[in-house]
């Protein structure tokens, strides 16, 4: 290795600058700081683990309680309108259904229309509110599970509603007149 | 209390005059002369004193390696602590296939580079408008050396030269700067530097020489003469 004088002034200056930048000692007590830091880490982990678990459990309980809580809402009177008997409207059969592409089967439709749940099991009787407190006696008893289905009548409770008449839509076929093109004679 | 003495030979810094013996010889009657590997085995068995001795033996090498990467003594101290704690926690996985010091320095360098990247991201946000494109870490935020007339007085010139060289070192490309600064710590051999940087020894030596060439070229362009 050359001395600073032999290698030139700038080489020596670079050596001095690098040594001045790098040959610094750490602050005293590094060993104790390392031991303290090492001892502190497991304690922190022990504290963080249960706290995180408790917070997660609290969040789960809160969300479950919120979702499972039954809302205290009176039964809507509109549901009885839906089950009131009404004459079936005279509806003409509509246009034929569009062709389904090959390889696809049409979605199966229910052969027996299902009655609303309240018509089978009766209205909810365990709820009393300002809206239905006077009508509890009018509620029909629930049918037995194996009894034949019978459409309940609420004619006395709800005013009859005029049936909805649906008028058939008549669409006139679109006729397109054939286009006639005559040749134009070109004279010389 | 036991004391452990390092019986390794002192390191020879390749680019600077030989470093004086920096480890104190303990001459107490209960002194045990043990190697790093023996201390590792004791520490693996739960001997805290043994790991403390490993910290004492390697604290300067670890601190200076971190300093070469992050450039700030306070940051380097924090990185050194982090590296020792990580080594302590992973000590059970150390099989002795490599030297403990090399393994420890690799951990230190990874921690230091992580810190440098984090600091660099912060500094890029803080100094994005005035930053030049030469580098990508905290050193490069330092302002560039202005081209001006050199003071002629010898003492003033020496001080100005040292200041300018430090600024130029900070503006070096990262690979050249890392190799130059690690070689200048006086604590690491070229083999250890190569292990840290993931480069062959020949590449490390070339980078050190190239860094010096770049510095001298820039200094000459600034008006300093290599007498």
Give the topology.
The complex is a heterodimer of chains A (188) and B (227).
Chain A lengths: L3 H4 L1 H14 L7 H39 L9 H6 L33 H5 L67
Chain B lengths: L2 E3 L25 E3 L2 H9 L3 H23 L2 H17 L10 H27 L27 H17 L3 H10 L6 H8 L3 H21 L6
Helix pairs in contact in B: 1-2, 2-3, 2-4, 2-6, 3-4, 4-7, 5-8, 6-8, 7-8
Give structural notes.
The complex is a heterodimer of chains A (188) and B (227). With 188 residues, chain A is mainly α. Chain A has a domain at 4-68. Chain A has helices at residues 4-7, 9-22, 30-68, 78-83, 117-121. With 227 residues, chain B is mainly alpha-helical. Chain B has 8 helices and 2 strands. Chain B has helices at residues 36-44, 48-70, 73-89, 100-126, 154-170, 174-183, 190-197, 201-221; strands spanning 3-5, 31-33. Chain B has a two-stranded parallel ribbon with strand order 1-2. The model of chain B is unreliable at 9-22 and 129-148 (pLDDT under 50). The A-B interface holds A 1, 8-11, 13-27, 30-31, 33-35, 37-38, 41 and B 15-17, 48, 52, 55-56, 59-60, 63-64, 67-68, 73, 76-77, 80-82, 84-85, 88-89, 158, 161-162, 165-166, 169, 180-181, 183-186, 212, 215-216, 219-220, 224-227.
Give a short summary of the structure.
The complex is a heterodimer of chains A (188) and B (227). Chain A has 188 residues and is an all-alpha fold. Chain A has five helices and no strands.
Span of the ends, CA to CA of chain B: 56 Å
Q: How many angstroms separate the termini of chain A?
A: 108 Å
Q: What's the tally of helices of chain B?
A: 8
Q: How many structural domains of chain B?
A: 1
Overall number of strands of chain A: 0
Structural class of chain B: mainly alpha
Q: What profile does the largest beta sheet of chain B have?
A: 2 strands, parallel
Structural class of chain A: mainly alpha
Q: Average the pLDDT over all residues of chain B and give the rounded result.
A: 81
Helix content of chain B: 55-70%
> Strand order of the main beta sheet of chain B, please?
1-2
CATH topology descriptor of chain B: Rna Polymerase Sigma Factor, Chain: A
Shape of chain A: flat
- What oligomerization state is this entry in? heterodimer
**Alpha-carbon Rg of chain B, integer:** 20 Å
Tally of strands of chain B: 2
Tell me the Rg of chain A in angstroms.
44 Å
């Amino acid at each position: 290795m050359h001395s600073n004088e032999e290698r030139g002034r700038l080489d020596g200056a670079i050596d001095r600058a690098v040594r001045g930048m790098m040959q610094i000692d750490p602050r005293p007590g590094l060993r104790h700081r390392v031991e303290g830091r090492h001892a502190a880490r497991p304690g922190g982990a022990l504290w963080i683990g249960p706290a995180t678990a408790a917070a997660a459990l609290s969040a789960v309980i809160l969300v479950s309680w919120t979702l499972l809580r039954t809302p205290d809402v009176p039964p809507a009177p509109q549901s009885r309108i839906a089950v009131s008997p009404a004459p079936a409207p005279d509806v003409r059969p509509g246009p034929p259904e569009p062709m389904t592409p090959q390889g696809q089967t049409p979605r199966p439709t229910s052969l027996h229309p299902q009655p609303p749940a309240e018509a089978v099991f009766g209205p909810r009787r365990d709820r009393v509110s300002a809206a239905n407190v006077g009508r509890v006696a009018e509620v029909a008893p629930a049918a037995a599970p194996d009894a034949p289905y019978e459409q309940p009548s609420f004619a006395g409770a709800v005013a009859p509603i005029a049936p909805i008449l649906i008028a058939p839509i008549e669409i006139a076929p679109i006729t397109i007149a054939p286009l006639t093109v005559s040749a134009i004679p070109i004279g010389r | 209390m036991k004391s452990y003495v390092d019986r390794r030979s002192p390191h020879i810094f390749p680019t600077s005059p030989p470093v004086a013996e920096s480890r104190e010889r303990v001459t107490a009657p209960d002194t045990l002369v043990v190697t790093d590997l023996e201390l590792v085995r004791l520490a693996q068995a739960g001997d805290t004193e043994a790991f403390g001795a490993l910290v004492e033996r390697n604290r300067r090498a670890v601190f200076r390696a971190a300093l070469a990467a992050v450039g700030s003594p306070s940051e380097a101290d924090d990185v050194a602590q982090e590296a020792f704690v990580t080594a302590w926690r992973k000590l059970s996985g150390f099989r002795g296939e490599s030297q403990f010091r090399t393994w420890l320095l690799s951990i230190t360098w990874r921690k230091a580079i992580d810190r440098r990247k984090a600091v660099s991201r912060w500094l890029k946000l803080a100094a994005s408008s005035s930053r030049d494109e030469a580098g990508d870490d905290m050193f490069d935020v330092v302002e560039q050396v202005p081209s001006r007339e050199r003071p002629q007085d010898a003492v003033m010139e020496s001080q100005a030269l040292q200041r300018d060289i430090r600024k130029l070192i900070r503006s070096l490309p990262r690979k050249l700067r890392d190799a130059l600064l690690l070689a200048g710590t006086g604590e690491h051999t070229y083999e250890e530097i190569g292990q840290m940087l993931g480069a062959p020894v020949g590449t490390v030596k070339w980078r050190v020489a190239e860094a010096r060439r770049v510095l001298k070229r820039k200094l000459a362009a600034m008006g300093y003469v290599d007498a």
